[in-house]
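Reminder: ligand-aware prediction takes two inputs, not one.
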Amino acid sequence: MGSAVGLGNIWKFPALTGANGGAGFLLIYLLATLLVGLPVMIAELTLGRHARANPIRALRMLAPPGQPWWLVGVIGMLAAFLIMAFYSEVVAWVFVYVWKSLEGSALSSDPAVTEAAFAAMVGNPWVSLVSQWLVLLLIGGILVKGVAGGIEAVTKRLMPLLFLLLAGLCVFSLTLDEAAAGLAFLFKPDFSKVDAAVVLTAVGLAFFKMSIGMGTMMTYGSYFRSEQNIPLTAGRVMVADLAVSLLAGIAIFPAVFTFGFEPTAGPSLVFITLPAVFAQLPFGQGLMLVFFILTSIAAIGAMLSLLEVPVLVLTERLGLPRPLAIGVCVLAVAVPGAGCALSGSVLAGVRVAGLTFFDLMDFVSSNLLLPVGGILIALFAGYVWGRAAFTRAVSNGGTLRNEGLAVVVLVLLRYVSPLLIGVVMLNGLGII
Ligand code: TRP
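Here is what comes back for the chain with tryptophan:
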């Protein structure tokens, strides 16, 4: 849950739901989560626990000799770096907003004020760059000091608080004048905006939010106890992940319509709308501070899980000492990271296929690499590893009565996920 719940829920989910027309997108995203995300998560956790190894070694061990399934792990590593490049920048924005909360700037129900505050931040190359370096140093420091476990324990304690704060914000947002318009946008499907590219984005979001398609969950699985009930765990993570996203959506969209923001604002959406809500609340400045601190903690938890896979691979495969591996990875993130940090200022004009560097990293990782990784993991678990081994592993060698469930998951892994993602990808990319 520490890995799954992060900026994907609080930042990306509202931004994409707003940009892609609301309820229609939400519905497709929910289907993708249930039909594709959940089975792939179960497959990753089960494979990881069975092999008790990093994703590359796990796939090498379980594949028949000579078949290069370990390449899935390599694609995953690439995805991890691309994700971290822009993710670290969004964490940096959250840090800047912790500072803005202390100052009390950006706290206003006037869209012009909150939009200007965000624009000033992303438009300033030094603020964008230096805050990202601070994030990377912090994450690297946490890993070198070996206190990631401690951070996870803190995250676990504070997550319910974030949940409560979001729930409170929702209740308040529902009292806003245009709450009904916000809810209608979020829950009354209108499929006029839905095309193949939108469906691909919804699938990519499902993968991104559940941290699947690149080996993170395989790594987590390798630390699981043998008695752990994997389908139950995966189901709980999915529900918690959905709940946090929906709360963020219900907190944000009534405010969007009440204060006159654009739902299509994109990456700025959370940062411009929530301060407008806080400005209406008693102790708004303090609550805004608490919100951005809790969000940064959740984001750091997710980011640690992203760095974990490449660090593990460098230490286990190349035998690098852990601090060196961490340093190499952080530097390797900082380079494309700088491209993302500067996308709002000096590199704003540099575009590939119409996308800024920031958007390109996001598109390639979420809409291409994670779904491709997901298809391959589904095919691997469904066909190569095979029915008997999968069923035995999912039901903990027969001690859990998960056999029926295993059949359902296998059908989804063998036929539904690869076909659905495959068709959606080819279509979304305009190939068919
Ligand atoms: N799921 C996290 C979020 O929602 C991001 C994340 C962490 C991730 N680890 C990942 C995404 C691995 C894809 C793959 O913020």
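The chain has 17 helices and no strands. The radius of gyration is 21 Å. We will return to this case in the review session.
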